[in-house]
Design goal:
The chain is of the alpha+beta class and 236 residues long. Helices cover 22% and strands 34% of the residues. Strands 1, 4, 5, 6 and 9 form a 5-stranded antiparallel beta sheet that branches. A 4-stranded mixed beta sheet has the order 10-11-12-13, with helices on one face.
Length: 236
């Protein structure tokens, strides 16, 4: 029965990160309820930002080493929004059961949504490394991916050379290291090629990544925005 309360420090950190990446800071913010059922979300909705994220636009600039030389890269940011974390589903403690950890539920977090402009696993991992460097420099977090302080959801789609139309994307959830980001993207890239060239069709879905096997597997079909039935949170 406890009502939500906005965390002032989370707003400060969001603005810091937005300024560091040259975003436009939204002066009028409100929160929305994102409705969906999942075992790690016992109240049935997540407090998030839909139509009015705190940061719009911006870009992340970084360098990639190729031999002895460095090449300049940048990834455009669509927006950065504030939301609360959900719980954590743990699949590797008991062989036939999923364990649930609700300790982090309600913790404030920032989600950076990039534009679909990366073309290789190396570029994606380098982009993520730059974000980690920035959050550490700004004192926003320690950026330790293996501890869950920084996580990555990678959206991957393929298209034939010369085509301008994006393919159907699949999202690999909660990748917890730079190495696993690259491994998951490389596997999923090749899997989607095999499906298309075999005459199949990519189904938009959310995937798990098995770090031991280096493979992805479907967790659920991916929802569209209207499935979440967003509406303004009346308590914030």
């Amino acid at each position: 029965g406890v009502l939500p309360k906005l965390n002032e420090k989370a707003v400060e950190y969001a603005i810091k990160l937005g300024l560091a990446f040259d975003c436009e800071i939204n002066q009028f913010n409100f929160f929305d309820r994102k409705n969906y059922f999942y075992p790690d979300l016992p109240k049935g909705y997540q407090i998030s930002q839909d139509k009015s994220p705190i940061c719009w636009g911006g870009e992340v600039k970084f360098k990639i080493k190729k031999g002895k030389d460095f090449s300049n890269h940048s990834v455009k940011i669509h927006h950065i929004h504030m939301e609360e974390d959900a719980g954590k589903s743990i699949h590797d403690i008991e062989p036939n059961n999923t364990c649930l950890d609700y300790n982090r539920a309600g913790t404030p977090l920032l989600e950076i949504v990039s534009e679909p402009c990366m073309t290789s696993p190396l570029e994606a991992a380098s982009y993520l490394a730059e974000i980690r460097k920035m959050v550490r420099f700004l004192g926003i977090g320690d950026g330790n991916m293996e501890e869950g302080s920084l996580r990555c959801d990678a959206n991957i789609s393929i298209r034939k050379s010369g085509s301008t139309e994006f393919g159907t994307r699949c999202e690999v959830k909660n990748l917890n290291s730079m190495r696993n980001v690259r491994r998951a993207m490389e596997f999923e890239f090749n899997r989607q090629i095999e499906v298309i060239e075999g005459g199949g069709k990519i189904i938009q879905s959310t995937l798990n990544f098995d770090a031991d096997k280096g493979t992805t597997s479907p967790m659920r079909t991916k929802e569209e925005a209207n499935d979440y039935r967003y509406f303004p949170d009346p308590d914030l």
